[in-house]
Structures are given as structure tokens and as C-alpha cells.
């Protein structure tokens, strides 16, 4: 089936259903709530939404533990509500991408209940079961992302089963062809309903080493590398055998072959690995693999110009024709306004150049709900924690609830317009979000919300930004700058844009290479923190500039 490539450079808006809008006042966001707010999403000028999981689930990991892949959890609504959401989105010109958690199920999934019942039932081999070592300990040294051994003892089968996350998220055995077939059938179910694509959860975790070999130890983290979180098992071992196995690629190709039967569908794979960028390059291709790979590298702490230059240099080295998806926030990490700001508060200019960076890099931007409002991370007391990861790691790591609080729609409303009325929402409303509520920013032409809208609308008309090449300017202590260039058309040179951002609180000057001449500033972009002269450009503190090159 033909693919018009809308996803290439298209903007995705991630919605976390529990926390977007509550239509029935039970304290939990739901599908009808999302449908009612879709005009707002469309008004931003994005191309697609990605819905975090809304499938039947005991909600131990808030939907990333699925117990029925082909139905909607009653807390979120019904399949009919999903169809209405889909039709409404399509009517507004929005594509709909859904989150497929194929690597593991909930322990309440009928497949797992059957699998754990005995060693010889028809689904006995659908999960990763293994005998203990002679001394009773787990089969090998693999660690769970959420802490502790990745193996859990099951008293009925007297065997261990593998779980990369919670013990209630048993890992499916992809070496069994029946498992692959069953999962492809669930993917097809939603394609037949009319979804436009998938975000694939942990897309490199599908297969494990069938010989169950130990991972090589990585040694105790020294604290010298600020990007390494000592609580994350990535700091302790190289994940050579529990993920990113060669067989993954063959399964992604089967998924791609299925999607290729449906016009204009796409998939973005979440790929967390020791060398995520190399893996992203390996897993994406125009022809027969993932369309896009979700990149973690802007979801961490550092963001100054030297960091960005080194990161993007590496991206250019490895990515080839692969296509990255850039996110500044998501439902798993501290919101960017708090993560990139000094002492938890971002200078207003910083959020604007961060947005401009994300929207001008080669790749597809993925906004997280509330990014466009500049929401800071919410403070959550231990008593209010829901995230099992946070409860396990407290207080060293406070978990993921601080980025999952209800969206602030209406500043004056007691429930911030979330829709729960007098009912306490599942996570507390963040008082720090009240002054940033959508309606308040709607009424202020200078707000971050209007900045996003202007930039998103302008961006759609810039061919260099949608699919053009990207070339970095030399490294600079304060300024991260690059050129995006559209391919030549019928012998005529394509559009060339200079994008330059001052990631510092001091003014900055950048001399331009002799072959680059600024023809005019793109003031319609709203990114207007600098000026150009004959030799180069000058940027205000946290200022950015986008310019046409002649
Ligand atoms: O997250 C996978 C996950 O935890 C990675 O972000 C991991 O931290 C990374 O690979 C380490 O480099 C997904 C979902 O986004 C998350 O909400 C779920 O809890 C998890 O899968 C389990 O389904
Ligand atoms: Ca509800």
C-alpha cells in the first residue's frame, strides 16, 4: 500500500490518557475526555497524537501491563468511545498512533494464567520460563529495569519467569512462533479499526538470548558520568544478552510487512540500549524496518551547546537514512522545564529555544502533553505516589508521577478544568500549574502556548525543516547551530535555513563560515532572539534565530 510519508518530519503529540481530561468525574482521564479536547490539540498544528496505553489492564504499571490487547479498559471507556475518538481526530486532520506493549503482558493476561498453570499446557512456552541453578538461585544475572533480579520465582511451576519491569509484567517468549503470530494478530486488529500507526514500547526487548547467558558486569557506577543513573541497571551491566538480540530485526520486519498493507501507517520504536543511537540506526529504514526510532538523548540532564554538538555529531555519524524521533519530555522522565532549568526552574527563553531546537532538528518531534504550556514537574508527596518504580526507589528516585499529574485547562476552576469536579483526581492537581493553565495562555499573545502555535504553523511551510539534510556548524561554547537544506528540485537549489540557539545566560556571537550568508531572518517563526550582520550573528541570552541563507 502507498505511503505518503506524512510521518517524516510530522509532529506527534503524546497524550497520557489517565491525565488529559476526565469526562465522567471519577478522577481519571478517559477517551471521551480526550475526544472533547481534540480541537485544542488540532489547534496546536501537530500532525498526529500518540495515545499511551488504554487497553484492559490491572494498572500495576498504569496500562503498560496489558491483560487484553483488543479491548479498552472500562476506566477509559469502550471500543465505541475509541471509534468516536478516531473519527473525531481524523475529522480534525489528526492521525492517531497507539502504544503497543508487545514485549510483556500483565500477569493477569489469560495467556499468562494458562502458561503458569503447568509445565505442559498449550501455552507453557509462551513466556520465558527457566529452572533455577543447582543452588536454587535465578538462572542468570539479568536485572529488571525497575530494580532487583529480572527473574521471579513461581511456586506452582517451581520455575523462574523473566520480567524486565515489574514482576507483574512477565516477558513473552518471542522465540515461540505462536507468540509472534498472536501479537501480529492484535496489531492487525487495530489497523483494521483504522489507526494510523504505533508507538512500540521497548521495541528492542522482544527477544532474549535463548541460552540465557549472563550479561557482562559493568562495574559499580563512579558518579563521574552524570548521564548514568546509578539506580538504573544500565549502570551495572552491559545488556548484551537480555535485549537487542539479532532476532529482533526479523520480527520488526514482519511488523513492517503487516503495516505496509495499510496505506500511510507508521511506527516509532522505543529503543533503550547501551548504545541507543547505533541501535536506532540499525532498526530504522525506509524499506523494511521501523519508520522511526524514539531517541532518549534529549530526555536526560545535559543540554548545553557542547553536549548538543557532540550528540548530534554522533547522530550524523551513525544514523544514515534512519529517522529519529526527538522528545524533550514524556511520561517516564522529569518534565523538561524542571530538568533543564537551574534549580528546577527554566529561564523563559530556555523553554523557547528548547522547543525551537526540537522543532528544527532533522527528525520527527514528539511533544508531551503540557510541554506547550511549559509545565514544571509536580511535587508529589510519598503518600500520594502511585508509580511502583517511585515507591520502590524512594527517596533516591521519586518516580514518574511528577510528570503525570492532570492537565491544567482552566486556571480559575477548582479542578483546573480536568473534569473531576469535587472528586480528587488520581494524582493531585499541581498548584504550580494553575498560572500556566491553557486558558490563561490562550488569552496572552506572548505566552509559550502561542509561541508553539506560531512556530508549528510556520514550520509546516518549510521544506528544509520537514525532510532536509542537517549539517552542524563548528562547536561553540554557547551556541548550537546547524543548517537544514532541502534537496535540489529540478536543478534549482533547495531551501537553506540556519538554526542557531544560545544555550547560555550571556549574549553570544557566532562568526559564520565564509560560504554562509544570511539573506533574511525568519521572523514569522517567532524565534527572534538575535540579529545578523556581515560576518555572523548575535544572540541574546537564551536567544535563538532561524534565517534564510542565500
Ligand atoms: O519504558 C521503558 C523504559 O523503562 C525505558 O525508558 C528504560 O528506562 C530505558 O530503556 C533505559 O535506558 C516503557 C514505558 O515508557 C514505561 O512507562 C513502562 O513502564 C515500561 O516501558 C514498561 O512497559
Ligand atoms: Ca473518567
Compose a concise summary of this entry.
With 550 residues, the protein is α/β, with parallel strands linked by helices.
Provide an overview of this structure.
This is Alpha-glucosidase. Pfam families: Alpha-amylase. Belongs to the glycosyl hydrolase 13 family. InterPro entries: GH, GH13_cat_dom, Glyco_hydro_b, O16G_dom_2. With 550 residues, the chain is an alpha/beta fold. It has two domains: 378 residues, TIM Barrel; 83 residues, Golgi alpha-mannosidase II (Immunoglobulin-like), CATH 2.60.40. Helices cover 24% and strands 17% of the residues. The protein has 13 helices and 21 strands. The chain has an eight-stranded parallel beta barrel. Strands 14-15-16-21-18 form a five-stranded antiparallel β-sheet. A three-stranded antiparallel β-sheet has the order 6-8-7, with no helix packed on it. The longest helix is centred in the middle third of the chain and has 17 residues. The chain is globular and about 75 Å long. The two termini are 39 Å apart. The model has no long low-confidence stretch (mean pLDDT 95). It binds 1-O-alpha-D-glucopyranosyl-D-fructose and calcium ion. The site of 1-O-alpha-D-glucopyranosyl-D-fructose has 11 residues, from loops.
Amino acid at each position: 500500500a502507498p505511503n505518503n510519508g506524512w510521518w517524516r518530519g510530522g509532529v506527534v503529540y503524546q497524550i497520557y490518557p489517565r491525565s488529559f481530561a476526565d469526562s465522567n468525574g471519577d478522577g481519571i482521564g478517559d477517551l471521551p475526555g480526550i475526544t472533547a479536547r481534540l480541537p485544542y490539540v488540532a489547534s496546536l498544528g501537530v500532525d498526529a497524537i500518540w495515545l499511551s496505553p488504554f487497553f484492559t489492564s490491572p494498572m500495576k504499571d498504569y496500562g503498560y501491563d496489558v491483560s487484553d490487547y483488543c479491548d479498552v479498559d472500562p476506566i477509559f471507556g469502550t471500543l465505541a468511545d475509541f471509534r468516536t475518538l478516531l473519527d473525531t481526530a481524523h475529522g480534525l486532520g489528526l492521525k492517531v498512533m497507539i502504544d503497543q506493549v508487545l514485549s510483556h503482558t500483565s500477569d493477569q493476561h489469560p495467556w499468562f494464567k494458562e502458561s503458569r498453570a503447568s509445565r505442559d499446557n498449550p501455552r507453557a512456552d509462551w513466556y520465558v520460563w527457566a529452572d533455577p541453578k543447582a543452588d536454587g538461585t535465578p538462572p542468570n544475572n539479568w536485572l529488571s529495569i525497575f530494580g532487583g533480579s529480572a527473574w521471579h520465582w513461581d511456586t506452582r511451576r517451581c520455575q523462574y519467569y523473566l520480567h524486565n519491569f515489574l514482576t507483574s509484567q512477565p516477558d513473552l517468549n518471542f522465540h515461540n512462533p505462536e507468540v509472534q503470530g498472536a501479537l501480529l494478530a492484535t496489531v492487525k486488529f487495530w489497523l483494521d479499526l483504522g489507526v494510523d500507526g504505533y508507538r512500540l514500547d521497548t521495541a528492542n526487548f522482544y527477544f532474549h538470548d535463548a541460552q540465557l547467558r549472563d550479561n557482562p558486569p559493568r562495574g559499580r557506577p563512579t558518579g563521574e558520568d552524570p548521564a548514568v543513573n546509578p539506580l538504573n541497571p544500565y549502570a551495572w551491566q552491559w545488556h548484551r544478552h537480555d535485549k537487542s538480540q539479532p532476532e529482533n530485526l526479523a520480527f520488526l520486519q514482519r511488523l513492517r510487512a503487516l503495516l505496509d498493507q495499510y496505506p500511510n501507517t507508521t511506527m516509532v520504536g522505543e529503543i533503550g540500549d547501551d548504545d541507543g543511537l547505533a541501535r536506532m540506526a540499525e532498526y530504522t529504514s525506509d524499506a523494511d524496518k521501523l519508520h522511526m526510532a524514539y531517541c532518549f538523548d534529549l530526555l536526560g540532564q545535559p543540554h548545553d551547546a557542547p553536549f548538543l554538538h557532540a550528540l548530534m555529531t554522533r547522530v550524523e555519524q551513525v544514523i544514515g537514512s534512519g529517522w529519529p524521533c526527538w522528545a524533550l519530555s514524556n511520561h517516564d522522565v522529569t518534565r523538561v522545564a524542571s530538568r533543564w532549568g537551574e534549580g528546577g526552574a527554566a529561564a523563559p527563553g530556555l523553554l523557547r529555544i528548547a522547543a525551537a531546537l526540537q522543532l528544527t532538528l532533522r527528525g520527527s518531534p514528539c511533544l508531551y502533553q503540557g510541554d506547550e504550556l511549559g509545565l514544571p514537574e509536580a511535587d508529589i508527596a510519598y503518600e500520594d505516589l502511585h508509580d511502583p518504580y517511585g515507591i520502590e526507589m524512594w527517596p533516591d528516585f521519586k518516580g514518574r508521577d511528577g510528570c503525570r499529574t492532570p492537565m491544567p485547562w482552566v486556571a480559575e476552576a477548582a479542578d483546573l478544568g480536568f473534569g473531576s469536579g469535587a472528586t480528587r483526581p488520581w494524582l493531585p492537581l499541581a498548584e504550580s500549574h494553575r498560572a500556566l493553565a491553557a486558558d490563561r495562555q490562550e488569552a496572552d499573545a506572548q505566552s509559550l502556548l502561542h509561541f508553539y502555535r506560531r512556530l508549528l504553523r510556520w514550520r509546516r511551510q518549510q521544506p528544509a525543516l520537514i525532510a532536509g539534510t542537517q549539517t552542524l556548524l563548528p562547536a561553540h561554547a554557547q551556541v548550537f547551530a546547524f543548517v537544514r537544506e532541502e534537496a535540489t528540485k529540478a536543478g534549482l537549489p533547495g531551501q537553506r535555513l540556519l538554526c542557531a540557539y544560545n544555550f547560555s545566560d550571556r549574549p553570544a556571537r557566532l562568526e559564520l563560515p565564509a560560504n554562509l550568508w544570511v539573506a533574511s531572518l525568519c521572523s514569522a517563526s517567532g524565534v527572534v532572539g538575535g540579529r545578523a550582520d556581515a560576518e555572523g550573528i548575535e544572540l541574546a541570552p537564551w536567544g535563538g534565530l532561524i534565517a534564510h541563507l542565500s
